[in-house]
Specification:
This is Alpha/beta hydrolase. InterPro entries: AB_hydrolase_fold, Carboxylesterase_BioH. The chain is an alpha/beta fold. It has one domain: 3-Layer(aba) Sandwich (Rossmann fold). A nine-stranded mixed β-sheet has the order 1-4-5-7-6-10-11-16-17. A two-stranded antiparallel ribbon has the order 2-3. Helix 6 links the parallel strand 10 and strand 11. The chain is globular and about 70 Å long. The chain starts with 12 loop residues before the first strand and ends with a helix.
Length: 364
């Protein structure tokens, strides 16, 4: 079987016309040939001993014997939809730090997100939650989840503005209900962050699907490069605002880039491994409010460093025969975008840029 679950054979599902409760925008229906969910990757942890259902007793969290029992965890969770007359290559959407597949679904102000936008363009869409996040929260290792009051920190890092004040011209809804929804899509890691584990799970997904295009956001950007080094089924990558884990040949790793609040470092890999990235088309997108020179605001500064590193990375990959395009949205006439251009007010225009690139590179 192509997948690890029972497909919806011969079933035609239709998303009927509806009106968003907040945006009030009527949308036409989408005919689906298939939809479902499954998990990929992961491991099984086993405790020594013999399971005794009698001695084990009734359910009593935290006060029961684990002898002889197993824990299935560290997998990725996937939700997928395949439209009628689907294009050949699916799009696999991977979230960023502190986020889940919610990033790609309805926008905080109730409009269609990339999930639905690209379904309308007949792409099979696969949304994933990486291991130890969201619907894939079953971890084989414990962690402590802090209940920190940090909304305003993320407001700045995600470049909506400073504190509680939006940037002028920002492409994010100023409706308080939208900001409330935005904050509530943040979700914690349920175990220690493990990049190798995440990359292995995403590679396992492409083993299941076959050829497809990976679409990443923020922290998954660097993990996406690593996944492409592992799996030839990744035929192209579109990365929205990658911020870390840029991969260079071992003897071409650039100097670290200091910024207010931290330092951005690149990774080195053998040249033969690095050259795998030169065999697929890659596009990188960054939004607005990213300075060209150092500033005092840490929320902007880390993205200045990221863009500077992305420029160097683009030059090196292309110098080795690759095909990387670096796009800063203001240069394409799209101004006011935050760290979440896929859910900004102009997300349809942002999506059109990606659609045009997919067609141009023969990934449609």
């Amino acid at each position: 079987m192509r997948k690890t679950f029972v497909p919806l054979l011969g079933l035609l599902l239709t998303l009927t016309a509806c009106v968003s409760p907040r945006s009030g925008t009527p949308e036409g229906g989408i005919a689906l040939a298939e939809q479902g969910s499954f998990t990929v990757g992961g491991s099984v942890k086993t405790s020594p001993g013999t399971f005794d259902p009698i001695a084990h007793g009734a359910f009593n969290p935290g006060n029961q014997s684990t002898a002889g029992q197993t824990l299935h965890g560290d997998h990725a969770a996937v939700f997928y939809q395949v439209p009628v007359r689907a294009r050949e290559l699916p799009l696999v959407f991977w979230h960023g730090y502190g986020q889940s597949m919610r990033t790609w679904q309805s926008t905080p102000d109730g409009r269609e997100g990339f999930q639905t936008i690209f379904l309308r363009h007949r792409f099979p869409v696969y949304l994933l939650d990486q291991p130890r996040r969201g619907l894939a929260g079953r971890s084989t290792e414990p962690t402590t989840i802090a209940a920190a009051t940090d909304d305003q920190l993320w407001f700045g890092i995600f470049r909506l503005g400073v504190g509680t004040e939006f940037y002028p011209g920002v492409q994010f809804s100023r409706d308080p209900a939208a900001l409330n929804q935005f904050y509530r899509q943040i979700t914690p890691d349920t175990g220690p962050l493990n990049i190798d584990l995440n990359v292995a799970a995403v590679s396992a997904l492409f083993d299941t699907l076959g050829a497809g295009v990976l679409v990443t956001h923020s922290h998954s950007g660097g993990q996406g490069w690593l996944a492409a080094l592992e799996n030839d089924n990744i035929r192209g990558i579109a990365a929205y605002e990658p911020g870390s884990n840029f991969v260079f040949p071992e003897d071409e790793v650039p100097e670290p880039i200091d910024y207010a609040g931290g330092t951005l470092r690149a990774r080195g890999v053998p040249l033969a491994t690095f050259e795998r990235l030169t065999r697929i088309p890659i596009v990188i997108y960054y939004g607005d409010y990213i300075p060209d020179a150092p500033v005092e605001n840490p929320g902007q500064e880390q993205w200045r460093a990221a863009v500077a590193m992305a420029r160097q990375w683009t030059e090196v990959v292309n110098a080795h025969g690759g095909d990387v395009t670096l796009v800063q949205l203001p240069d394409r006439g799209l101004k006011g975008n935050t760290h979440f251009p896929m859910s900004d007010l102009n997300n349809q225009a942002v999506a059109q840029l990606l659609l045009d690139w997919l067609v141009e590179k023969g990934l449609d």
